[in-house]
Amino acid sequence: MPLLQELPENNIFQAYGILLLKNNHRFVRKLKKYYTPSIHGHKTWNSSFLLMDYFLHNETLGHRKTIMELGCGWGPASIFCAQHADAKVTGVDRDDEVFPYLEVQAALNEVEIKTKQASFEKITKKQFSEFDILIGADICFWDKLTKIHYNLINRAFKAGVKEIIIADPGREPFYELAEKCLDKYKDCDLLDWYATEPEHFEGEILVIRNPDY
Ligand SMILES: C[S@@+](CC[C@H](N)C(=O)[O-])C[C@H]1O[C@@H](n2cnc3c(N)ncnc32)[C@H](O)[C@@H]1O
């Protein structure tokens, strides 16, 4: 049975074909009584819409790919991939308090997303080896994360991940990561991008393709 009996309903919005909850939606207000995300995973961030727009304009997602979302938070990009490309998606986050929000939003869109609590620095090559694609939205927000993400990308490619796509509003640690990746990987693009839903939003997309594939 659908999670909501009828739409429209207050404090829900639609972007790129999926339904998402605003912070003052009645389900979110209930969840907040029990779960308190503490590393910025307290809402849907706009960089997720950059990823959705990028995927609509590219072949990346294909059909039924296995995708890991790094720092998934409430999982908007994961939900989009599951819904639009029938992808098998696992959302990874260090903060397991984000998962109840992701699960409610996934149910709202009638998709299933696996979740896994793990830190960027602790995800192993064996864990990466099960995935075709890694995605991340607004996950480069502290200086110390640049090195952590760079090592993660190298580890993931050694494990056989084919492509990594990271969206960002344009924070300094993201540009530092992009510079390091552009130096090391031939097949790497830093793209200015904008999303048009739920409203105009500009940012950046970093696409890095595994040189061994
Ligand atoms: C700015 S939020 C973005 C959430 C989501 N991607 C979005 O676009 O709405 C950053 C997310 O990264 C997670 N995070 C922060 N540090 C992390 C780490 N070291 N390992 C894994 N996840 C982390 C946070 O818990 C949070 O959910």
TrEMBL record:
It comes from the Bacteria. Residues 67-141 form the Methyltransferase domain. Coiled coil: none annotated. Pfam families: Methyltransf_25 (PF13649). InterPro entries: Methyltransf_16, Methyltransf_25, SAM-dependent_MTases_sf. Gene3D superfamilies: Vaccinia Virus protein VP39. This is Methyltransferase domain-containing protein.
